[in-house]
Design brief:
Layout: E1 12-18, H1 24-31, E2 36-39, H2 46-61, H3 70-78, H4 84-91, E3 99-105, H5 110-117, E4 120-121, H6 130-136, H7 139-143, H8 153-159
Antiparallel strand pairs: 1-3, 1-4, 2-3
């Protein structure tokens, strides 16, 4: 089941959180269907998620995707890969993950959601950092790009994905 996502919709919210939560993906499916969680150490700022939402919504609403759900389409763009397995390895939560980024339906009450998962809200986990950029991009990509433009590399990588 999923949400009726489209590029014209803005009925979602993006927020970060910290803490320990076992089986977080399954728990989210149970308490907040249509919500998606990512490993915050892979997220290069709020713009990374917003641009991924734009591309995934457009692809999904035009039925030019090759995945079975909007959530998987979004995962490909956030994970900067055209392969589900690799995108999960990149942006998916792991058992040791303690910093999360959520994309939730707007009607989900954030404080209730975080309390149910025993997490505390943290916008800091959404910030672009040099450490995240070094984890995601090659040394050559970073050396060829002025440091103040590193955050734009994520958009370039998304644009080059062959997802349809």
């Amino acid at each position: 089941m999923g949400r009726n996502w489209s590029s014209e919709n803005s009925d979602y919210q993006i927020f970060g959180a910290e803490g320990k939560c076992e089986n977080i993906v399954q728990r989210i499916k149970e308490i907040a269907p249509g919500s998606v969680v990512f490993d915050a150490d892979w997220i290069l700022g709020r713009d990374h998620i917003e641009m991924a939402l734009y591309h995934a919504s457009r692809a999904y609403s035009r039925k030019i995707h090759r995945v079975n759900s909007f959530e998987n389409c979004l995962l490909l763009y956030v994970g900067l890969s055209d392969q589900i397995y690799e995108a999960k390895q990149n942006a998916g939560v792991k058992p040791a993950t303690e910093k999360f980024v959520f994309v939730c339906p707007e009607e989900i009450e954030r404080s209730w959601f975080l309390k149910a998962l025993n997490l505390r809200e943290s916008e800091k986990v959404l910030e672009f950092t040099e450490a995240k950029a070094r984890k995601i991009f090659t040394r050559q990509e970073l050396e060829a790009t002025p440091r103040n433009h590193w955050k734009f590399l994520v958009f370039e990588r998304m644009a080059l994905l062959n997802i349809p």
